[in-house]
Design goal:
single chain, 804 residues, alpha/beta, 10-stranded mixed beta sheet, 22 strands
C-alpha cells in the first residue's frame, strides 16, 4: 500500500473509534462512573495495571504532570487506564461477534485481564462494530494500528512506542527466515535445524505486527494453521498489548482460512495449542520475569509458563527508550545487566557529553540472544540507526557481546549478517527517528563489509550512478513487493567499521554516491575559489592522519539553560553602560514564561550564538543576550552572597522566576543543592576568545570561527552548538576550514546520522581525521589564511555587519 493511501485509512479509524468520537466519550463516562462507585474488582484491576504500566511510563508521567507527585501521576494513569479499558472492550466486542463467543469462552481464550471489571457494562458501541473496524482498517491484523491512532502521538513517543508498518514487518521476517534457511545446513548440530517452519519469538510484540507477519508468511508457505501458530511466541509487559496481539493472530488465521465457520476454526486451533490459548504472554523479556504486578491477580498459571525450547528466529521492534528516560526503579533492577553486557561503562565526563544515552533496545538485543535464541539462530530487530553511528553511546552495543579482559558475565557473541537502512524512508508515521533493521547471527562473527539495502522514498533525489536493485543477490520478490507497497527505491551498499578498535562506529557507503551538494553559495565554491583550495589541502591532510590518533581536538556543548531559556535569554541592547534595561525572551522555548523588562547589571549579559546564527565560516549577526549567572570555576551558580553584593538587580529579577527555575528536571537531578539560577555546560573554556562552533542536529556539518578582539565582549555558544577552544585566531580559522571541508563533512555523514541528536555532538570530533594545528608547516598556515579570507568575505557580503 502506498504511503499516501494510509492517510484516509487512519482518518476513518480515528473518526469511528478515536477518543474524540461521541460513542467513545460516552463509554469513558460510564467507565469513570463505574470506577467512582469503588467496585473492589475495578480498584484491584487498576492497582495491578498501574504497577505494570507505571514502570514503562516514567517519561510519559514526568512530561504530562507539572509535579512528579503521586496524586497527579495517579490521575494521569487513571485516565490512561480508562482509554486502555475502552480499547480492550472494543477488541472483546469485535472478537466475540466475529467468532460467536460467549463471555465464558472469551475468558478461557484471553484469561484474566485488568479490564474484565467493565465486561458487564452495556458498551455504547454500534452493533456492527466488527464489520466497521474490518472495513476501516483493510488489514488482516485489524487492531495493529488501533492503539497508535487512538492514543496521542506525544504519549507514545514518550514510551518509545512506534508502530511498524505491516509490509516492513513481513519483509524483515522473510529476510530473517531466508538467512536462517541458508545457514542451517552448515550446522548439523543446530537445534531443530530440520524444521520446515522455524520457531519464532518476538520479545516485545506490542500489537503483534511481527507475529502476524510471520504467521501469514508461514501460512502462505503451506504450513497448517495449528503448525504456524505453534511455531510462534510473543511477550509484552502491557496487558493491552497482549490482548491486541492475541486478537490480531486470530484474525490473521481467519482471513487465511475463510472457508467454514470461524467459531469451528477457533475451536480446532485451540485444541492443538498448549494450554488452549494463543501464544502471547504477559512478561518482561529483559528481567525474564512476570511484570511487577502481584501475580495472584492474573491467577492463571499459563501466563507464567514459558517455552523451554529456544527459538531459531527472534524479531521485533523493541522500545526506543534511553537510560535517562527509564523509571528509576527499573534502572536499579537492570543496572547490573547493562554493566555485565558492557553497555554501561563510561565515566561521568563522557556520559555528560552524550555517551550516557544508552538505548534500552540494545539491552533487549543481548537479553534475547541469551535467553531466547538457539545456537546459530538469527535475530532481526528494528533499531535506531544511532546505535551504529554514535561514537560513545553505541560503543558497547557494537562489541556484540564481547567483553574482553573482564571477569563479568558477557552475552553470547553474535555477528552482523546484513542490514536494511530505512533512515531515508521515514517508515514510522510522524516520527523523525532513523531506523535500521539489523540481522545478527548468534555465536558467529561478522564478515565485513556486510551488505546493506538502502531504502529511499521514490521522490528523493537519487544519484545518477545509484544502482537500484541491480544485484540479483538482493533483488528478491520480497524486496520488490516492499518497494511497491511503500513507494520505496532500493540501492545496494555496504557497511564496515571505521577502524579495528572494539565497538568502532560503522560507515555505510553507497556505491557511486556522488559528493553531496552544499547548502549555500559559500559551500558550493562558485564565488569562493578559496574553498576549492581548502578542499584540496584538507583531503591531503586527512589521508595522512591516523584514524586512531590520540592527538585529537576535544569538544564540549554550549551553555544550557535546561528548559529555562525564556528566563535567561534577552533581546539585544547596548552594553556600554553599567546598568541596562532589557526584555527577556519569555516566549522562547517549549516552557513559556512572563515577558518583562528589567534593569540588570550589564557585566552579566553576554552575546549568545544560537543554532540559527551559525553559517559556514562565520556567524551571522548575533541578536540574543544571555544572563550568565554561572561561576566558570566552580561550575555552579554564583553564591547568594555574591549575587546580593555585586548583582542585586539580577538577583531581584531571578527571584521572580524562582519556582520555574527550581522545577527544572536537570536542576532537581544534578544541582538541587546549588543556587536555583545555576546553568549547565559552563566552564572556563566557555569564555575563551578563540573558539570554533558547529551545529548539532543538522543535515550537514556547518562550522564557524569565533575570533574575538581583546576589547569585545565574549560570544558564548548555545547548547544546540558544539564548541572547541583553540590557542590563536590562526588555529581557529584552520579548524573551521577543516570542519567545513568536503572530506570531513562526508566523513561526518558516514559515521553519524544527519538530522538526529547525535549528529554534530562533541564526540563526533574525536572520530574525524583532523590533525592538530602545526604553525611550523606551510599547509596548515595556508588553510588558515584561506579560511580567514572566507570568514571576512562572508561577513562583508552580509551588509558589512561585523561578526557580533
Amino acid at each position: 500500500m502506498a504511503r499516501n493511501a494510509l492517510t484516509p485509512l487512519r482518518t476513518r479509524v480515528r473518526r469511528l473509534f478515536g477518543v474524540q468520537n461521541a460513542l467513545c466519550q460516552d463509554y469513558l463516562v460510564k467507565l469513570r462512573e463505574r470506577f467512582a462507585l469503588g467496585a473492589p474488582l475495578a480498584l484491584r484491576a487498576f492497582n495491578a495495571w498501574k504497577l505494570i504500566w507505571r514502570g514503562v511510563a516514567h517519561d510519559f508521567l514526568t512530561q504530562t504532570t507539572q509535579k512528579r507527585d503521586d496524586s497527579s501521576a495517579d490521575a494521569k494513569l487513571l485516565e490512561r487506564f480508562f482509554v486502555h479499558a475502552y480499547l480492550a472492550q472494543l477488541i472483546f466486542a469485535v472478537v466475540a461477534s466475529t467468532f460467536e463467543l460467549s463471555r465464558d469462552q472469551m475468558r478461557r481464550l484471553f484469561g484474566a485481564t485488568p479490564f474484565d471489571w467493565a465486561n458487564d457494562l452495556p458498551a455504547p458501541l454500534p452493533a456492527n462494530v466488527a464489520s466497521l473496524l474490518l472495513d476501516a482498517t483493510d488489514s488482516h491484523a485489524p487492531f495493529a494500528q488501533l492503539y497508535e491512532i487512538v492514543c496521542s502521538g506525544s504519549s507514545r513517543r514518550a514510551l518509545g512506542e512506534f508502530y511498524t508498518p505491516a509490509p516492513i514487518a513481513r519483509f524483515v521476517y522473510d529476510q530473517a527466515r531466508q538467512l536462517w534457511e541458508s545457514r542451517q545446513l552448515s550446522h548439523a548440530n543446530s537445534i531443530r535445524s530440520n524444521m520446515a517452519t522455524p520457531r519464532c519469538v518476538d520479545p516485545c510484540c506490542g500489537a503483534g505486527v511481527f507475529l502476524c507477519a510471520a504467521l501469514e508468511s508461514n501460512l502462505n508457505r503451506g504450513a497448517s494453521c495449528s503448525e504456524a501458530l505453534a511455531a510462534l511466541q510473543g511477550y509484552d509487559v502491557s496487558p493491552l498489548a497482549v490482548l491486541t496481539s492475541q486478537a490480531n493472530l486470530l484474525f490473521t488465521v481467519a482471513f487465511h482460512d475463510a472457508c467454514g465457520s470461524r467459531a469451528a476454526l477457533l475451536n480446532r486451533l485451540l485444541s492443538t495449542l498448549p494450554h488452549n490459548t494463543l501464544p502471547v504472554r504477559l512478561r518482561d523479556s529483559i528481567l525474564d520475569a512476570y511484570p511487577c504486578a502481584s501475580e495472584d491477580y492474573f491467577h492463571e498459571k499459563r501466563l507464567a509458563t514459558l517455552p523451554t525450547t529456544p527459538f531459531e528466529i527472534a524479531l521485533g521492534n523493541p522500545p526506543w527508550l534511553s537510560w535517562e528516560r527509564l523509571e528509576p526503579e527499573y534502572r536499579k533492577l537492570t543496572f547490573q545487566m547493562w554493566r555485565d553486557y558492557g553497555l554501561f561503562d563510561l565515566d561521568g565526563t563522557r556520559a555528560r557529553l552524550g555517551g550516557g544515552k544508552k538505548e534500552l533496545a540494545s539491552l533487549m538485543v543481548f537479553r534475547t540472544l541469551d535467553l531466547r535464541l538457539a545456537p546459530h539462530g538469527v535475530l532481526a530487530f528494528l533499531l535506531p540507526k544511532s546505535l551504529l553511528q554514535t561514537r560513545q553511546a553505541g560503543q558497547g552495543f557494537r562489541r556484540f557481546g564481547v567483553v574482553e579482559n573482564d571477569s563479568r558475565l558477557s552475552c553470547a557473541t553474535c555477528g552482523a549478517l546484513e542490514l536494511d537502512d530505512f533512515s531515508q524512508a521515514s517508515i514510522f508515521q510522524g516520527v523523525a527517528t532513523r531506523a535500521i533493521a539489523l540481522y545478527l547471527k548468534k555465536e558467529a562473527r561478522a564478515d565485513f563489509p556486510i551488505p546493506v539495502r538502502i531504502w529511499k522514498r521514490a521522490s528523493a533525489n537519487l544519484s545518477a550512478d545509484s544502482t537500484a536493485c541491480s544485484d540479483s543477490t538482493y533483488t528478491t520478490p520480497q524486496a520488490r513487493r516492499l518497494s511497491e507497497r511503500l513507494s520505496l527505491q532500493l540501492t545496494i551498499g555496504e557497511a564496515t567499521p571505521e577502524s579495528t578498535s572494539p565497538g568502532a562506529t560503522w560507515r555505510i557507503d553507497e556505491p557511486g554516491e556522488a559528493s553531496r551538494g552544499e547548502t549555500s553559495r559559500v559551500a558550493q565554491g562558485t564565488d569562493f575559489p578559496e574553498l576549492q583550495r581548502i578542499n584540496e589541502l584538507a583531503e591531503r591532510l586527512a589521508r595522512t592522519t591516523r584514524q586512531d590518533s590520540s592527538a585529537r581536538y576535544r569538544a564540549q556543548l554550549g551553555v544550557n539553560a535546561a528548559g529555562a531559556s525564556g528566563v535567561f535569554w534577552f533581546e539585544h541592547v547596548d552594553l556600554t553602560t553599567p546598568i541596562v534595561v532589557a526584555r527577556n525572551q519569555g516566549l522562547t522555548g517549549r516552557k513559556k514564561v512572563e515577558c518583562v523588562e528589567a534593569a540588570l547589571e550589564s557585566s552579566l549579559l553576554f552575546p549568545l550564538a544560537r543554532w540559527r546564527d551559525v553559517a559556514p565560516f562565520c556567524l551571522r549577526k548575533v541578536t540574543t543576550l544571555i544572563l550568565m549567572t554561572q561561576d566558570p570555576q566552580t561550575r555552579r551558580g554564583y553564591a547568594h552572597e555574591i549575587m546580593a553584593q555585586r548583582y542585586p538587580l539580577a538577583l531581584q529579577y531571578l527571584q521572580r522566576f524562582e519556582s520555574q527555575l527550581r522545577a527544572r528536571s536537570a536542576y532537581k537531578r544534578y544541582q538541587s543543592q546549588a543556587p536555583f539560577w545555576s546553568l549547565y555546560n559552563v566552564n572556563e573554556d566557555t569564555f575563551a576568545r578563540y573558539k570554533v562552533v558547529w551545529r548539532r542536529m543538522d543535515a550537514d556539518l556547518r562550522a564557524a570561527a569565533i575570533v574575538e578582539e581583546q576589547d569585545a565582549r565574549v560570544i558564548l555558544p548555545q547548547e544546540t552548538l558544539s564548541m572547541t577552544t583553540v590557542g590563536s585566531a590562526q588555529e581557529a580559522d584552520y579548524l573551521c576550514a577543516m570542519l567545513n571541508s568536503r572530506v570531513i563533512r562526508e566523513a561526518a555523514r558516514r559515521i553519524s546520522v544527519p538530522n538526529t541528536k547525535s549528529f554534530g555532538s562533541p564526540s563526533l570530533l574525536n572520530a574525524l581525521p583532523i590533525p592538530q594545528f602545526d604553525a611550523n608547516q606551510e599547509i596548515f598556515l595556508e588553510i588558515a589564511r584561506l579560511s580567514c579570507a572566507l570568514r571576512r568575505k562572508c561577513a562583508c557580503q552580509k551588509g558589512g555587519e561585523s561578526l557580533f
